[in-house]
DNA sequence: AAGTGGTCTAGACCACTTA
DNA sequence: AAGTGGTCTAGACCACTTA
């Protein structure tokens, strides 16, 4: 490769890459970034296999050990999935992954199950300032997706999902939206949600919410605000979910 | 070392260790377990430095690379902390770590701050069945710690903490408890909390809770139930926290 | 049998901290 | 200057999957 370099040179090379001399970027992180760029650009599509470690090491001009450290980092971020004996694959938002990684509601007695959509509406509207800030909008329009979601046939979740209209052209042509909306982002808009930050509060149901959820006005609800970000760290989605948690709970692991 | 072994032998050796032939335990995981055992046993105390990688590799009879993989695993579980140029240390529950790892409440406007204890009561009582199950109690008694905790001088958190009486002898002699209770577990009872699972719900304040928190009866509160476990995976603490989230929220990262 | 990722080694050199 | 953890290499062999 033309950009092959030895370990000693990698330090200054990393510095010139950004134009800022911020100490030192190890070779394996440079390799990680190169591979991540290919995934972001779509050169390597979700679900497809990467070249073998031997081939990648040759392509990148590094040892297998260094290449593996780069793959280790991507795997720990769940950007890729490795299977001994089979190969390394770009991660995709299949039902299982989304269910466990991004859906944290479980029954008090029966564990987790996937929710089903009973109502879905997509509309274009001007962004509110909170949304504009969370999504770092260039324009001023968002898609507003409103869904009623049920567990065991009972509506327990009210979702309001806001995304940048300009990043999701003709989203309204995709109605009815698939149950797993992150799969839609990935397949039709080439945007992969990498992680999310959620803020939880307890609030009281207003009249409309009480009617939709079949509870009393003033009933305690769990409000979950989520900002979801893409592989490159840019915010993709702002979401507010209200959940009736009488027989369900939100599960969080602290490690 | 007398138990030095080469890579080829490690597979069958791992099998005989447990008496069950469950495939294969790599050498670095065996080394990881050995070091974890020393930390659990207190041979290596929280806050102290481990021997250098070179020395450890010699002691364990493995290469530095394998030794580092074991340390990597312990570091990713936050059991140890490494500092380039200084050394490797057994993690301890200092204020900072507990604040960020186990305290997830933050102000809507000003980020996180440590809570202060305004009231604390310790009592011994019979365990309820839910507690007995969560803590896998051998006996039937628990310590019940009740605390009122404030942020910016205002009581926002009501905590009920239950621990096995037999694992915390004479806990009531430690009153007043320190602000950081996991530091107490670690220093005086040699129990390190490694991780926790939390279950969140929205509930309505009853009369007593409303009085303590200075809100109306029926006001929505965030209930957080936590089961905290030790380094060896055994449950240590069952805790129920009620939080007034009008100007605060619970923060959760999904990766 | 061939190909994949996973483990392990021995050694070199680098970045960082402390004295 | 000496000691620490961090990076990188080249090569060997192992566990697992697929054909």
From TrEMBL, chains A, B:
InterPro entries: Bact_HTH_transcr_reg, Chorismate_lyase_/UTRA_dom_sf, Tscrpt_reg_HTH_GntR, UTRA, WH-like_DNA-bd_sf, WH_DNA-bd_sf
Alphabetically ordered keywords of this record: DNA-binding, Transcription, Transcription regulation
Signal peptide bounds: none
An example Gene Ontology molecular-function term: DNA-binding transcription factor activity
Keyword flag Membrane: no
Domain HTH gntR-type residues, every copy: 25-93
Any one GO biological process: negative regulation of DNA-templated transcription
UniProt name for this protein: GntR family transcriptional regulator
Upper lineage: Bacteria, Pseudomonadati, Pseudomonadota, Alphaproteobacteria, Hyphomicrobiales
């Amino acid at each position: 490769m033309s950009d092959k370099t030895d370990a000693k040179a990698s330090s200054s090379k990393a510095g010139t890459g950004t134009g800022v001399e911020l100490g030192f970027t190890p070779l394996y992180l440079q390799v990680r970034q190169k591979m991540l760029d290919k995934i972001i650009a779509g050169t390597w599509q979700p679900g497809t296999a990467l070249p073998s470690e031997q081939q990648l090491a040759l392509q990148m001009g590094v040892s297998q050990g260094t290449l593996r450290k780069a793959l280790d980092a991507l795997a720990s971020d769940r950007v890729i999935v490795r299977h001994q004996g089979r190969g390394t694959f770009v991660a995709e938002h299949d039902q299982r992954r989304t269910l466990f990684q991004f859906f944290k509601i479980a029954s008090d007695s029966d564990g987790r199950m996937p929710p089903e959509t009973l109502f879905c509406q997509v509309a274009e509207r001007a962004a509110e300032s909170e949304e504009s800030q969370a999504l770092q909008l260039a324009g001023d329009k968002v898609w507003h997706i409103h869904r009623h979601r049920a567990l065991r046939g009972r509506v327990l979740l009210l979702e309001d999902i806001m995304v940048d209209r300009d990043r999701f052209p003709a989203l309204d042509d995709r109605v009815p939206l698939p149950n797993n909306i992150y799969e839609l982002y990935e397949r039709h808009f080439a945007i992969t949600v990498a992680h999310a930050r959620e803020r939880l509060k307890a609030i009281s149901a207003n009249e409309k919410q009480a009617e939709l959820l079949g509870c009393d006005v003033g009933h305690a609800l769990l409000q979950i605000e989520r900002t979801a970000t893409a592989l490159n760290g840019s915010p993709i989605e702002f979401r507010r979910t209200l959940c009736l948690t009488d027989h369900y709970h939100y599960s969080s692991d602290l490690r």
